[in-house]
């Protein structure tokens, strides 16, 4: 029988994965080459020993943090003429704000989340104000507690469950302001440089992408699962495959504006046609939800999975996440 233990990728980061994500062919080979052989990699252990930095555009940095019970997570920093915008903050370990201020040359760094899940919001604690879609505001507020990150990532003995890290390197707890935005909101980074919010619900009711209107980079967060109305009864429709399909249909005339698609996990800087592939799989699931390729346990939730063409990932959905049409 084949040993399916994921092959390790060399890392200088302070973290040490103990239960790494299962190896996916396209992801693993991409990450192997990028992290071990690419001259793009920058590492600043004196500022943040838990993050690797990759400048994918002249003013755009992809920041990689090893997963903590989740897949390795990408955060993205866009440096505009006067301000910078950080998209997502991983699960919090390490001084992400100091790293972003270093990369931005000391410019003010705004902080926004694609959605409220822990592997995307843990580092919010480094900021006094965080932006997120209005449908996810209340869910994010529920997670602003002194022990939220520790409860999610540590065992009963106070030790990391999934990826080792020094607990002393978590950000100090403090309350921060949450500002809700809507679809189409634009962050102004100075001199007309804007980053536009594109609502891409399904994974959460407020899950959003961020389109850099200058470079065409599209940072899409997590758009490969939908957990149904029980995930957020107040905005139940926006937790369905149908809602993601409808959002992509609305955005479809603008696919040509996208120079690269940057998900929150896995292979990044994908061709814009990836958006069409995601749209296609949504339509396929809506038409035939019973034509799934696998049934999986997703952190305790039973889900169905259908492969997304050429993306190296699958669309996961619950029974109630598909509305019959």
Widest beta sheet: strand line-up: 2-3-4-5-6-7
Q: Structural class of the helix and strand makeup? A: alpha+beta
Percent helix = 10-25%
Determine the strand fraction and express it as a percent band. Answer: 25-35%
Extract low-pLDDT stretches.
none
Number of helices: 7
Envelope shape: globular
Question: How large, in whole angstroms, is the Cα Rg?
Answer: 19 Å
Specify the biggest β-sheet: 6 strands, mixed
Overall residue-averaged pLDDT value? 95
Number of DSSP E strands: 19
Assembly classification? single chain
SSE pattern: EHEEEEEHEHEHHEEEEEEEHEHEEE
Spatial separation of the terminal alpha carbons: 44 Å
List the helices and strands and how they pair.
Blueprint: E1 16-17, H1 25-37, E2 42-43, E3 52-57, E4 60-65, E5 73-79, E6 83-87, H2 96-103, E7 108-112, H3 118-121, E8 129-133, H4 137-141, H5 148-153, E9 163-164, E10 177-181, E11 186-188, E12 194-199, E13 208-212, E14 217-221, E15 225-226, H6 241-251, E16 260-263, H7 273-287, E17 294-298, E18 301-308, E19 313-317
Parallel strand pairs: 6-7, 8-10, 14-16, 15-19
Antiparallel strand pairs: 1-9, 2-3, 3-4, 4-5, 5-6, 11-12, 12-13, 13-14, 17-18, 18-19
Helix pairs in contact: 6-7
């Amino acid at each position: 029988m084949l040993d399916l233990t994921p092959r390790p990728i060399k890392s200088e980061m302070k973290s040490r994965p103990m239960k790494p994500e299962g190896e996916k062919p396209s992801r693993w080979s991409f990450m192997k080459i990028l992290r071990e052989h690419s001259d793009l990699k920058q590492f600043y252990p004196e500022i943040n020993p838990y993050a690797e930095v990759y400048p994918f555009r002249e003013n755009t940095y992809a920041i990689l943090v090893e997963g903590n019970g989740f897949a390795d997570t990408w955060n993205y920093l866009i440096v505009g003429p006067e301000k910078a915008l950080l998209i997502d903050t991983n699960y919090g370990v390490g001084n992400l704000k100091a790293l972003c201020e270093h990369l931005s040359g000391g410019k003010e760094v705004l902080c926004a989340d694609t959605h409220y899940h822990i592997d995307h919001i843990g580092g919010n604690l480094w900021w006094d104000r965080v932006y997120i879609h209005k449908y996810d505001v209340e869910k994010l507020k529920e997670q602003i507690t002194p022990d939220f990150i520790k409860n999610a990532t540590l065992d009963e003995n106070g030790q990391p469950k999934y990826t080792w890290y020094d607990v002393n390197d978590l950000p100090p707890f403090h309350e921060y302001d949450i500002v809700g935005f809507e679809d189409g909101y634009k962050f102004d980074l100075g001199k007309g440089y804007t980053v536009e919010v594109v609502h891409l619900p399904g994974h959460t009711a407020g899950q959003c992408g961020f389109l850099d209107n200058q470079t065409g980079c599209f940072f899409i967060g997590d758009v490969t699962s939908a957990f149904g109305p029980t995930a957020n009864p107040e905005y139940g429709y926006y937790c369905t495959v149908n809602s993601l399909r409808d959002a992509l249909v609305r955005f479809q005339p603008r696919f040509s504006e996208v120079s690269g698609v940057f998900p929150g996990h896995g292979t990044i800087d994908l061709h814009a046609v990836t958006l069409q592939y995601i749209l296609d799989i949504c339509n396929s699931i809506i038409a035939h939800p019973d034509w799934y390729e696998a049934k999986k346990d997703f952190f305790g939730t039973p889900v169905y999975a259908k492969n997304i063409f050429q993306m190296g990932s699958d669309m996961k959905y619950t029974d109630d996440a598909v509305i019959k049409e």
